Protein 1
Amino acid sequence: MTKKSNRIKEVILKRSTFIIFLILILGAFGLLRIVTTHKDIDDVANIDLPIIEILTQIETYQLEQAIAFERAIRYAEEIEPGNNLALQGFSEADSTFRYLAQLVDILLLDSEQTVVDALKQTNQEAQRIKLKGLLLSIRKLESDHTSYEKHALEVVDLLEEGRIDEAVFASERVESEEDQFNKQVEGVLMRHEMFTEALVKIVEQEEVLSMKWIVTLTLLFIILSLLAVYTFSYKIWRPLEDIRTGAERIGRGNLNARIKLTSNSITSDIVDSFNEMADRLSYSQKEIDQFIHFSYSTADDLKAPITNLGSLLDMLGKDNMNTSNFKAILNNAKKTNQQLHKTVNSLVEVNKVREELGSENELLEVDEVLKEVVASNISKIKNANAVIKKDFSECADLDYPKSQLKMIFKHLLINAIAYRDPEKPLQIRVKTKRVSGHTTLIFKDNGLGFDSIKHKEEIFRPYTRLHSHVDGSGLGLYIIKMIIDYHRGGIRVESEPRKGATFAIRLN
């Protein structure tokens, strides 16, 4: 018997894998959302905040630069011979202006490089669009600041030359450029801060949305898990309840109780095992009933010769026994002993077959097994002038206990010889067929035959002889039926008087 796979184990593994898969999906989703959110936060921390800081410094230094420029003009207007204080103030304001102008230039270059580096780092399309716009604005600031710085230095040079009126007139243009530059810096800074604030809000919204999704998926996962557990438990509980009910019915003596399930039931292997157990119990009960019947039949078969033997012994004990009577009684005693011997041997053979029913299957060549049986009964075959024709081309090999297949061949062959028709040569045909995945042995003879419709049940009972002239045990077909029933096979007989008999035996 092939080993059955544990279907419950397979289903548990599949369901567990499914639940683990759901957990992995939920975990992956949550991790992805966390990574994405952290990336957005990193962009704010590593890109937006440094840029805002630089732009704020540029705005601050630009205001200080404008103050230094105005101070330089005021001190230049106060410069007179002997006024060293005004000259010193102009010099300090000029130096401060030039220093701050360099700082603003450096910061503008730093901010441009920061934006360029940020464009390389970020993968967010919205962030990239913002940074590209910011890069254009910073480059515009660089150009405007260069123009502003150039014109401012020209004014300072005029002041140094003492051309105050020209310097004051030119300073109006510088102040206009300064005011325009300050507005541009303030505008860029405000737009960047607004975008950063919007991005932070988006990140916060995404965090809230992520939590909602995680909670939703968690609830969905819990619902699916509960449904899976409930369905799985029900699919196990229902068959187990049927098994319990079936066991109670069998316990009450109903050995025909069986459980029916759909083919995809996860407990099909347990149900199959239960039904197989019920089949075995039914078979065992049938065997017990047959054995009881066999015991009664054996007792009946033994009763007559034992009684006869006792009467013969009583007759031998009488005083008036003469020689002729003694010989007659002795001959009758010998015949009775032979009958007892034959019955006892048959009983031993039946018990031996019953003990060997659980033998392991072997891969057999049917032709080789038949040859062994023929060789063991060659004298009987020759005496009956029997001709055996065989055809095992359709199924040459068979997985079956060898001793039991030999027993089937032996009793079929002995029956064919015993019940041969004396008016024609005995012909026996043996062949195998493959029918619906089962091996069927067909054994046909042209002997005396019998009415198979009338005697279809009777012929398989122990000690049954349909022809009184045949000297046999009457156990051959009983033994064959016992073997076939054990292997859950089947046997069908077709026969008519004077037309032989055909036995179709499904071996497995």
Protein 2
Amino acid sequence: MKILGVIPARGGSKGILGKNIKLLGGKPLLGYTIDSVVESKLLTKCILSSDSEEIIKAGKRLGVEIPFIRPAEFAKDETPSIEVIKHALEFFAASNEYFDTVCLLQPTTPFRRDGLIDDAIKKFDSGSYDSLVSVRKVPHQYNPHWVFEEKKGKLEIATGEKEIISRRQELPKAYHRDGAIYLTKTEVILNSNSLLGNKIGFIDTTDEDYVNLDSMEDWKKAEEILKKRS
């Protein structure tokens, strides 16, 4: 199985200025994801996709492959990750280089344990999945069976059930994506325009350090995690 790792890192972040190359614990944020890539033995190739000269220079110093500068049309605030991935696949296809699977690795979720990428790849390869994502357990008070949606000024159980599950012990396990890893078959990306498809596997990272960097409050949390680690 040929796997293309893609690290998306555009310029122009607003919540945290210069986020992708901002120093976290003395290292550019981008460096944490690149370290995880270097540690992986199962990724066939991994590239950085960026529109920013500054980020590209930093990426080169950190040793990641940068085969192109991402076109501005794929570097807007509203550009979905799947368009960034499709652009990368088309770039390599133009040189007759093809991949069975894509591994999306977002720098904004920097704390991946050693072996996580390869563990995810092994699980993905052993199952008949369209995709596999890293997830964390949802606390019971936020379980979708206990969450309400507003409809026409009234509340209804988000799952559509008429009666609420009364006991916490009876709630099914629920998970949310943590953004650390997306593995998706190339055919699902290109034919279904989806990063998930229908058969979704998962790897549970609930017990591991976690932050998804979107605001300076998140950044402070990341700094606290590093302090605890040291």
